[in-house]
Design goal:
Layout (H helix, E strand, L loop, with lengths): L2 E6 L7 H16 L3 E6 L1 H4 L6 H18 L7 E4 L5 H10 L4 H5 L2 H7 L8 H15 L5 E3 L5 H17 L9 E3 L34 H10 L18 H14 L3 H8 L4 H26 L3 H30 L6
Parallel strand pairs: 1-2, 2-3, 4-5
Helix pairs in contact: 3-12, 4-7, 4-13, 7-8, 9-12, 10-11, 10-12
The protein binds tryptophanyl-5'AMP (TYM).
Amino acid sequence: KPRIFSGIQPSGGLTLGNYLGALKRFVEKQDEGIETIYCLVDLHAITVWQDPERLRQQTREGAAAFIAAGIDPKRSILFNQSQVTAHAELGWIFNCIARMGWMSRMTQFKDKAGKNSENVSLGLFAYPSLMAADILAYHATMVPVGDDQKQHLELCRDIAIKFNNDYKVDFFPVVEPLIEGAATRVMSLRDGTKKMSKSDPSDQSRINLTDDADMIAQKIRKAKTDPEPLPETLEGLKDRPEAKNLVNIYAALAGMTPEAVVAEYAGAQFGTFKPKLAELSVAKLSPITTEMNRLMKDPAEIDRILGQGAERADAIAQPILAQVKDIVGMIRSR
Ligand code: TYM
């Protein structure tokens, strides 16, 4: 039976990139009736320093965003990672399976560590091995993510394969990344060659799920574009990263293909297209923001939901972890 796992770091407010590349698709998968497990990965978040009170706040805000976007905590399992100890335990075992060389090739690590890799946490280096544990602790086989997680998921496959080979078992399944739709890589509104990111120093570069309608409209109005009108076909967007990004965002929000968007707006100036995009963005995002704000008024209720989710997650992960320990040769006598 197929099972989906995915996670989002509570390391900042969620962006339109997280929404279109991940959250919106998490809801679609849930609504297709597949078993879905979604996690706020707080253990991953602390690979870079997080203020404790903010981490708590951002974890709750992340949970509120999931629910406001349409995740039903009865149908999906929704929890924060640190409440299920199997993640950290299996993560350690995977640290002993994964090779230093594999980790050194991770582009996200190289980007985040920059030139000063001597001074980043060991956890940041081991990050993808914990991510593999997140998925494989549930024997999940399908993982909806944005394009930037592709390499991490390839590493997850490598870990599963090496574990199976080393212990001569057929235990961990092969994981399939689900990277689908028009917005697998939403770009910065200021620079069409950079990913939209919660860690970009410029708030103008992104739309946050907490932005109000005026802010969203203002950011789209000011988004960088070129002076040309929209082309007749997608081909015409090839060397126009900013224009292409806005078309992709429109397509993902409207549930259209980029081809259909270009066909509808062929020849239109950005002076026409941007207000339409702003209107659509507000229409799609404002109800989520409003619901998030409502949910955030009752933090105890959010914590209760995360706790119940964690119990259900634990019930799936513990037996799998017990089997792993048996395979590896660890005594379990209590
Ligand atoms: P994170 O928290 O950086 O991002 C969460 C999800 O949002 C997607 N995403 C984007 N999609 C499109 N355009 C963008 N600009 C954009 N920015 C972010 C990400 O691809 C991701 O799907 N390592 C993960 C969290 C994680 C995880 C896991 C994911 C931990 N364990 C297990 C899947 C399975 C991360 O840092 O995501």
